[in-house]
Amino acid sequence: xxxxxxxxxxxxxxxxxxxxxxxxxxxxxxxxxxxxxxxxxxxxxxxxxxxxxxxxxxxxxxxxxxxxxxxxxxxxxxxxxxxxxxxxxxxxxxxxxxxxxxxxxxxxxxxxxxxxxxxxxxxxxxxxxxxxxxxxxxxxxxxxxxxxxxxxxxxxxxxxxxxxxxxxxxxxxxxxxxxxxxxxxxxxxxxxxxxxxxxxxxxxxxxxxxxxxxxxxxxxxxxxxxxxxxxxxxxxxxxxxxxxxxxxxxxxxxxxxxxxxxxxxxxxxxxxxxxxxxxxxxxxxxxxxxxxxxxxxxxxxxxxxxxxxxxxxxxxxxxxxxxxxxxxxxxxxxxxxxxxxxxxxxxxxxxxxxxxxxxxxxxxxxxxxxxxxxxxxxxxxxxxxxxxxxxxxxxxxx
Length: 398
Hints:
Layout: H1 2-31, E1 42-46, H2 52-61, H3 68-78, E2 87-91, H4 97-106, E3 111-115, H5 122-131, H6 137-144, E4 168-172, H7 177-196, H8 239-242, H9 256-269, H10 273-288, H11 296-305, H12 342-349, E5 358-361, E6 367-370, H13 373-396
Antiparallel strand pairs: 1-2, 3-4, 5-6
Helix pairs in contact: 2-3, 5-6, 6-7, 7-12, 9-10, 9-12, 10-12
């Protein structure tokens, strides 16, 4: 009997020892960093719906983990069999199997860059993101045309035009359109709070829930003799000549919405930070004096909306009956014409203190500003007539 008991004890000890050894071996294999792929890194794309077993087998074949079966044991019995997320994964160093699996459980996928340059319209922003292989154009446009994300900032908004902040972003390849658009609007809020809101301290409308222009706003006629603020020649068209009634807002900027609208025009007029405050001052001065904005970028936007933009503004375009035509309609256009940067928003919030009413391009990205129409006419002659005449003459001379 003693021999039997002794044998059983020895057998039990052997079993325990074997189990302990197996556990030690298993733990050692799992906790030993492994790298079995050639080159600097390996990139794996896991499709949605792929089973955990198939994922682990792919990881083993790629040399990311040493043994798929051991990894499966860890995943089921130690980690509780959590789901593994699809997506693109990049591995560039040796790692233990638990470390690799933790990345797949958390969805630590590769993110990709997409840049929205300054001054894009809503449609152009959607096209840029879709072209970078994020979501689809249709899904992005549907999200961007839903103004609910900014209802607290701009109750009048019909879309997210003007609130899709231009920036370089990182997204997962499978990021849904809703998440992408959320991030664009969140960035607008962040940059506005950081760079613009401090400039509005003490402004009454900035301290309360902002409302846009209300139905009680009193229209003011567009000044018939006003000259364009930008590059057009004076007196080409007026509201009376077009047979339309001008409209404007009360005061230059009376809400966050109007600030964004004017900043979007400034954004399209100049890319130089040093000029933004001057350009903003021109438009603020014109609004305060009930002078039409005559801003070419609003014509471009109107043409884009109608699908007629081909890169050129013609004289007939200046007379089209479109609410975004600031050659015909006084004051600010109905909404933003692009996504402005914080620099343009800040320029409108605190424009330079000038008496400028006009500016014209020097054809090198900079502008020359003027206080009087006579001065502006001289600048137009110098930079739009004489300059190009000399260029044509030089070209003809070879």
